[in-house]
Write a structure and sequence with these properties.
By secondary structure, chain A is an alpha+beta fold. Chain A has 13 helices and 38 strands. Chains A and B meet through α1, β10 and β27 of A and α1, β10 and β27 of B.
Chain lengths: 691, 691
């Protein structure tokens, strides 16, 4: 009862509290301003304006503990330090080689008004395209021993009027693999980050976090009115986080942009808020493209487990290696190579061995064969979410791969119950969220062990990306959203708008191993039926055009990109396959040129250390005629544009295959007209004329 | 990745596990059958069929603990006992005087296959219209000391095809006060119970719990596919529940009915699964109707706090008592009578005194005045969610009311942050969910303290009802959903379908103090504006017709019913007010006659110990012409039907006031035609001719 009344009065109380002790910090260009304060009850608060408009209303800060007095009210604010950065640094691989880091920093202390030794610091960094803040809790008498965080009180109070949100639900069994929803702000429930908003006036916001280390992942839940509240993944033993003071939280990040492409162009903030490379020389981390023994299992024509349809045989793998070598791919992923797939592995990750291969897969022979052909075998570790079983075997497993010259491992955390299984020393099983503190710790353990052996990790069913690839560049990619596999068996498969939402949501956080490149877009006889698919549904239609599959290689960034379809499907269509052969996966620069969340996106990227550019455009279920000015090209130079676009009559629903491939000469003064079919896309390679 | 594949295979594994050790128990009429089993991994499971059709697919049972080994796999099933009941018992007040309890019971043990001392019992009771089961965990060596439950593994796997759900979200700040959503099963997130489903074939299910004592409330969250999983409210210190073995959980209840009214007619299951009256003679618990100093505060024309608009003055109260006495009401509720309303009470429940009245409210004089007029003052305790402050003053507060002859107290747990504040002995504040273990304990403490003084409690912002009114008949009503107050300031107010959903969802759990009877359905000048509503919105239109307001007295059961509007608004419309004066609040029998969830409902009730019947019908935003057979009347007798129905042109949106009041002679062979306007309703009093 009386809820709205209270909400109105409560907001006034907060707003009215702005007082002499307010502290402000602005971005370098001055348009983004963060104000720290306390309200009438001494609760720490912050607020944000952008170009003079409120984008985050006064919002609470603080945290509660199980056994210790929390930081939530009766506190006073004091300035501690200010700093500024204007630097740049080089990525080993990424969307761009050189990352600029320009921000202003304010460090403050919130102290108990009656006991100034009870305190926490808040460090705020304001960039031109977003801000981050984190709690830094010093060692103090009132926080002795183990500290159990039961609630982080961080709020993000967004303007309510006409605010639209794009989100996937959190705290459900299936991690991040949901179809995105577009709703008014007031209709969201508990959501994963990045969660993206368009305010009534057109300003775009996205909320996420950076540097998730020794803490639990933050989801957001809708509180009273328009208050989004931090909702940390609980540990299996109850509290959200357990640690000891001193500690720091991950950075809470708010990206702010005038338009939707601005969010994509502002993602360096996540890297800048992470610690620099901790691994030293990482020249052994190798971007590239790969093929795999994988899609057949999703189609139901091969199996992970042994038997007549077993996919991971020596013979099958050599054939894929041959094709990979012929067409310039750097790797071949093989799933289902190891013992464990024949039992109820999805119920019991204990069954997996990470060192014993099936008898029909001679891993030594295959790895040698690949090496001779200039291709690397890509390793695979499906853990079924049993992180204890994986950690027990981890060193031996990575040792094996190191010896075989396997430089990349795809890991998997499919967990039947939706949670990771961790078995304590007492033998008691604990079930941990994929984004809980235990999972966060597990993934860093794996990364460090792998790095010692110069192995990179591509995590499926991962914890979300928070920019840790800066610190651990061997975290080369991950899943963490619905990928192509849903087009094999998803009921429903990914809708046409899915890849027109991902760039503005999931992709803001970092690379995704989406595994595009499906060329056979309609099911064939024998797919999606037993024995591989007991009880499964028939394979659905893929809801894209063929040209859109090519565009995804540019639109969805990953330093490793799979050509996910079967070799024979590429052999049938050599002309469009040429684009997959040509497109690089590591970039000098990336620019989002145009788009609207959920409608379409146009992105251009330049090859790292090269002069050629690549452009990708995808649309939702609506066809579009895009005009793309080519001002990003070097002025005065002529480029050959190799255009792969939807052909006459192409339509995701009725006719996905027509593709027009054509060449034109263009310069930076030209505008490229790109007709996109419903559910379609376009991929363009722009090669400068020599001389 | 691979999620649907796994889901399909996983389901098969469970389904295939039905084996020789399956144990069945059927309802007395035999149509509802529960099967207990274990799956291939030794996980306890149950499944339910109704009239030969699966209504709950094999679903997991079990629980996990923080420090002890859980009950989840490697278990074997053994029958322990069977029993049957065919009894009836009398309620002190209720929807019906005599409650039938007919069920078959099966008690089983699930034992660790390697250590039979590790075990839990499951007690299953199957009624003709639903079933309940609970875990009974005996004392055992492997569960010594404090047991922290981190997860109850109970699942409810419903058939997915075409299943529709009606639900409100759980684990959000605002307890239960949400507009209901109607979605496919697959689109629900985390939801409160009762949550109601219509399966593709038309069978209706509702899932809830009974006898929530010393445990945390159960919400449901959607797991993989169509698995609804128990999601207990966490304690502030992390785990879901803390207790010691032996212990019993609340009953997990599944109502099953052939049609929507069948759910309403099957709610005795919640009472039957609770313990009998623990209070002895409860003749002091008095159903009745009441007026109040309350709606003016919601309109913004009066205030809870002191000042020129203070509502709770001696003079104002006496005027309402006069009107109450004149028109046969038994009580007058006065809110804002006590010290504490002038500060930021919604932030800090410490401000409230429950024994000191404002200077302009002479509580002794008012209580005396009421008693002389044959009316009782109804007490009010707004705690602002600070349960520690309330518990400290509770004895003195109830002592005061006992001395003054106040026999009912409305309590309130408005909590600004959405959670209840509990302050430990160390001074550290803990914030507990409204349905967490601490809240459950607090409410029972209040009930017991009140019972010692022959006081009944009407809880607002309560924990949900789980039938505890059987054991504690002084828990006379509660809120726990959006009530009329949202029609004063809700943005949006309750939609027309709201009261056509409540009977099939929230009301299944027990009485609700909805506070109907709003006669002034459009805002007037001065309402919804400062000073009572700082920053508030203008008052919205109420989205019902006038006749529907009358129908709610029959449709929405509560042994205490408020006439919520201002005295002057009733004085303006004496003819429809007559129905409110006539309608009883305690019943000999209640029958849901017709309806569909979210569309409409028709309910008939007979006065307890009387011969007159009352019929209420409400519709959603659609107008309807209902034909209501009167077969529930005594055969061969003539009744005068006093019909209050929507008048010519009535419409919730454009013209809410037209009401037609007419009398007809009817018998049990007649069919009453009731035209309901869009957003309308009808109320009928049926009085037998004398002799």
């Amino acid at each position: 009862m009386k809820t709205l009344l209270l909400s109105a009065a409560g907001t006034l109380a907060l707003a009215g509290a702005a007082s002499a002790q307010d502290l402000e910090v602005a971005s370098p260009h001055g348009d983004l301003v963060v104000t720290l304060s306390t309200d009438g009850a001494g609760r720490p608060t912050y607020a944000v304006t952008f170009e003079g408009e409120t984008v985050v209303e006064p919002s609470q800060l603080g945290m509660r503990f199980a056994e210790h007095r929390g930081f939530q009210e009766g506190m006073v604010l004091e300035e501690k330090d200010r700093a500024a950065a204007d630097e740049s640094w080089e990525q080993p691989w990424g969307e761009r080689r050189i990352v600029e880091d320009r921000h202003n920093e304010l460090l403050v202390t919130f102290m108990d008004e009656e006991d100034e030794r009870r305190r926490f610091d808040l460090r705020v960094r304001v960039f031109d395209d977003g801000l981050g803040f984190r709690y830094e809790v010093p060692k103090q008498r009132s926080l002795r021993g183990e500290v159990a965080i039961t609630d982080e009180l961080t709020e993000f109070v967004l303007p309510e009027a006409d605010t639209t949100a794009w989100w996937i639900p959190a705290r459900m069994w299936n991690r991040y693999e949901y179809i995105y929803e577009e709703t008014p702000l007031g209709d969201i429930h508990t959501v994963h980050t990045p969660v993206t908003f368009e305010l009534g006036g057109g300003t775009h916001l996205s909320i996420h976090e950076a540097a998730l280390v020794d803490y639990s992942g933050m989801s957001l839940t809708l509180g009273r009115g328009n208050r989004l509240e931090a909702d940390l993944a609980p540990r299996a033993d109850g509290p959200k986080v357990k640690l000891e003071a001193p500690f720091e939280t991950p950075w809470r990040v708010i990206q702010v942009a005038e338009d939707a492409p601005g969010l994509i162009n502002g993602t360096d903030i996540y890297l800048n808020l992470n610690e620099p490379n901790a691994l030293g020389d990482v020249s052994w981390v190798e971007p590239g493209k790969y093929l795999g023994i994988w899609w057949g299992m999703h189609l139901g024509t091969q199996t992970w487990g042994s038997g007549p349809l077993h996919g991971a045989t020596t013979e099958n793998t050599k054939a894929v290696i041959d094709f990979a070598a012929e067409h310039g791919f750097s790797g071949v992923l093989v799933e289902g190579w190891n013992e464990g797939w024949d039992g109820d592995w999805y119920e019991n990750g204990d069954v997996f061995s990470f060192t014993e291969s099936y008898p029909d897969f001679d891993i030594e022979e295959v790895a040698d064969y690949a090496r001779q052909k200039g291709v690397r075998l890509i390793g695979h570790h499906e853990t079924s979410g049993n992180i204890t079983n994986y950690e027990k075997q981890m060193e031996a497993a990575y040792d094996l791969y190191e010896r075989l010259g396997v430089a990349q491992v795809k890991t998997g955390y499919v967990a039947d119950g939706g949670e990771l299984k961790r078995v304590g020393e007492d033998g008691v099983a604990h079930y941990e969220y994929h984004d809980g503190q235990a999972a966060v710790e597990h993934h860093l353990t794996a990364l460090r062990e792998a790095a010692e052996r110069e192995i990179s990790i591509n995590t499926h069913e991962p914890v979300k990306d928070t920019g840790l690839r800066r610190t651990y560049p061997n975290w080369i990619s991950r899943e963490g959203a619905r990928g192509s596999e849903y087009d094999a068996w998803g009921q429903p498969p990914n809708p046409p708008e899915h890849t027109a939402i991902l760039p503005y949501t999931r992709m803001l956080s970092g690379p995704m191993d989406y595994t595009p490149g499906i060329f056979k877009l309609r099911p064939e006889a024998g797919e999606g039926s037993p024995p591989a698919y007991p009880g499964g549904e028939p394979r659905p239609d893929v809801r894209t055009t063929l040209a859109k599959q090519l565009a995804l290689y540019v639109v969805l960034y990953s330093p490793i990109q799979m050509a996910a379809d079967l070799v024979e499907h590429y052999e049938e269509k050599p002309e469009p396959f040429q684009f997959i052969k040509d497109v690089p996966t590591d970039w000098e620069e990336s620019i989002a040129l145009a788009g609207e969340v959920g409608d379409y996106v146009v992105i251009a990227r330049q090859r790292r250390g090269g002069e050629d550019w690549y452009l990708g455009a995808v649309t939702d279920e609506e066809g579009r005629a895009l005009d793309v000015p080519l001002g990003f090209l070097e002025e005065g130079r002529t480029y050959t544009a190799e255009i792969y676009r939807d052909g006459e009559g192409a339509d995701w629903e009725t006719n996905p295959y027509p593709i027009a491939i054509e060449s034109r000469e263009v310069t930076s003064g030209d505008t490229l007209d790109l007709p996109l079919a419903p559910g379609g896309g376009a991929a363009v390679r722009l090669v400068p004329a020599q001389g």
